[in-house]
Amino acid sequence: MSSEQAGSGGNTLRGHLQAIEDQLADAVCLVSLVRPNPAAEHLRRNVRAARDALEAALELVTSDGGTAPSGASYEETDQMERRDLLKLGSVLGVAAMAPLELLERVTHGAGRSAPVDAVLLDDLASLTTIYASKYDQVSPTSLSQPVAAHMNRVTRLLDGSLSPAARRKASGLAGEVAAFAGWLAFLKDQRGAARAHFALARDAAHEAEDDALKASVLGSMSYLCSRTHSPTGHGDTATALALIDQANATIPDEAPASLRSWLAARQGVEHAADGDEDGYFRHMDRAKTILRDHAGETTPQGFFSDGGRFATWDEALLRGFEGTGLVLLGRAAEAQAVLWSTLADTPYSKRRSTTLADLAAAYAQQSEVGQACRTAKDSLAIATEIGFSLGVQRLHGVRARMHRWDGDPAVRDLDAELAKAAA
After folding, report:
1. Looking at the predicted structure, is the pLDDT value of residue 265 above 90?
2. Residue span of the structural domain in which 385 resides
């Protein structure tokens, strides 16, 4: 086997290796999404073991002493490996979450050298929507690996030669997936990674000439400056508001009402963080008006729209933002009433954890230390169970504002639980 043949074979196998690794990551995540169970971590270990084995095989084939596959062309080998991939997907139950044919088309289509067509881009968009639909239901840890693999698939397309229309569509899709990855990193309190993903998403949105997506990303970036998720309770409110102002200046008139309502609510919360009651109530009222006047409006599929980040943007979630602002303004009694009504209508774990954390802060403002600590522990139990690191950090911020009661048994018990979560 010549070195040239080895290099060609190595490149082909590396492509297979990447495709199989991506597919395995998808399979593991999708199985855990359908039926969360203790076997998920075992499957993840198998993914890593399979990758190690494939790497070892690659080394053997591409080394000077290696031998080329005999009796089959690389094209025939490709077909056999993809058939094996389908069998593996069936065993792992991938079809229970997404059409197996879709996963196979995406894996093969994104790795081939043929021109990118509308069918592949539509398939990639469909897989994005499937992942995005699990944003509120699944832990960020479970989603991170397959979304990262999916982002690699999409961004690799941009390195190739694309028609102007295909490049715009691929860029928009890359922006959606990068923003999704940014949110997952943020929820895991990986702020550097979140910042990098959001920056990539913003640039991709610009290339795609998608102002609604760009406004969504700018609004997302404002969270990185906000004091609402800071363990110290400090933040850069001026920068957060500047980013939201940029988003509002960018957003087109035809943008989804859910996006415009969310930005108004974000603006209200940041004004509350700045102690500006008038600004808080003005923007919160605007968020409510937008949502009320466009009830039932449908939006395009994607992470920032129907089936994704804003699929469940409703009055209950808006009340959660309202409660956060009231806590920031020190209006504890009003905040409790709003947050309890929110909790009753909030089925999703991350949001329940956040709402309980805000309730704990409201109880602490009223010197109800025991209730504050019990509520904080309820929030912490949810956050640790689903790997919601940002929620844990939010609770550290709540605890930092309870220093007056450091010697209280309930506070010491909360400290022990927070320490256990950090271990």
Report:
1. yes
2. 348-423
